[in-house]
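SEVERITY: medium
COMPONENT: batch folding queue
REPORTER: lab tech (J.R.)

DESCRIPTION
The queue accepted two submissions in a row. Attaching both inputs and their returned structure tokens so the on-call engineer can compare them side by side.

ATTACHMENT 1
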Amino acid sequence: MNIPDELKEKTNEELLALYKAGKDRQVKQEIVLRYVYLVKNIAMKYRGVYASFTQLDDIVNEGIIALMAAVDKYDPDKNARFETFVSKRLKGLIIDIARKQDWIPRNVRRESKEVNDAIHTLYERLGRYPTNQEAADYLNMSLEKYQKVLGKSNLYNVISLDYFLWEQNGEQNTESLVSRETPPEQKLEEKEFHSILKEGIMSLREKEQTVISLYYRKELTMKEIAAVMNLSEPRISQIHSNALAKLKVFLEKNKNKGMI
């Protein structure tokens, strides 16, 4: 299908408004073509999550289908920016695929649980997050082995935290992400959750906060973050793992209290 030149000259926002008004297939095709890069970027970023059971091209193809569906469901008057709307749907797609495949090796799952349980226990005992050395001592591990376990469980923590956030925002069912007005009570719950999440992030160390911000808000890769912070990529991965483990403990603690 040839796309008219006048459509190519329009901004993304103009195209989205135009599609909402008329549901023209040519307009939709132009929108999809402009956002294919976003599908590829997210598929690349989460490659470690699905590399053991499927290919990048397969995820991209699934992502493009999700992108086309997102164009139909998106409402400029009710939803966030289209990039944000699509990103959430694409991440949700990968999370859903990964969980269905049970992609996490059993030993990584076990070791990650042991580390998270240790951090949670020490947090309750000390009234603060334990240092790596304290957690390693509690688990009768050398510091080097503890850090290796953190590195191996990094992707597990990423997907677990992402899914936790996905559930808490009521978005675990991607089909529910339709263009509709959010009920006042849901808005209040989301506000409270984000307030607690912000509190959890603020409780992290400065470098951990920076890594979380660059990874999740700026969507930089570990390599890019390493360059920004002038640290090695393995060190960034370690900081990221520590931050995620702490955030999971913080959020689960508040969840158990019925605060989220």
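ATTACHMENT 2
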Amino acid sequence: MASLDVLIVGLGSTHGLRAAEDELAGSLLRAGADAMLVRAERPREVRTLALTDLMWARAARRAAVESLAEAAPRAVVYSTTTAALLWPQPGAVRFDAPAAGNRPGRHGVWQRPVERRRLREAPLLVPQDAGALVEAGSPTTESVIVPIPVEPSDGGAGGVRDIAALTYATNPYKKGLDRVLAAWEAVRREDEELVVAGLRGPDRPGVRYAGTLDHDDYRALLRRARVYVTAPRREDYGIAQLEALADGTRVVTTPAPGPYAALPLLAGVGAEDGAPVGWVADPSPAALGAAVRAALDDATDDAVYADRALAAIAPFRRAAVDRTVAEELLPRLLRP
């Protein structure tokens, strides 16, 4: 049986999750660990969230069992609490948001109690933000916070900003697309266009739907946008907002329940100069629209804003995350 330092059991159920899993594996490898990432095989589509989670948890268990039969890892990391629900052996749990927060009522009827047990039994928790621990009930299990690394995309800031505003709305209700559209209608000027990524819909004056895009194409749109706007009803992390900052795009948002790691940064909480790098407003059309208008009309030079935004996301950059993985996470995973 082959030896291995760290086995990561991932779900890979979304592009964002796959990217986060790849980043964790890469960071462990750069820290000198012999790490391997395996992913669950996508199950068939089912109708309810509770059954969907069961199917994914079973798929993650199968992937873990098969890999454990071939290797003897010193540590196992389950990527998401769903991957850990039916684990074949205890391991660290990596998560952005717990079922306690994003599976209310009947949607999480079986997941929440099992999750509480797993978070107690795990040797280590690896949340992506401190807010995820709070939403999980502040478990006493030892934890290391490891953010998702965010970097400027190829091309970075500095290009032509020929799109007034961009939003991402694969899940329209959760992302608050109705709020964004109402605010946009209230403040847009004749020559300004809002591009809606991740969704098909009927174009109308001032609004264009870009549909589903691969990540490179999406980031290319982001580099062209002056403002990224979102009004989520719940935000598990806020990776799109961090990517916007990484590419020098001004960000307008609303407060939202959930860990929402990007929100304090956008509001200027903890900033050395106390200055926010985003515009945070109430979700009403008047308030959100005013924030969108203020961001669009912001007189700060684009290059100056891009430099400020990059400085603000320094804790989320790959170099910072690599230090946390090498100095804090890996020693805890591999200790006797």
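NOTES FROM REPORTER
The CA atoms of residues 70 and 156 lie 42 Å apart.
No errors were logged for either attachment.
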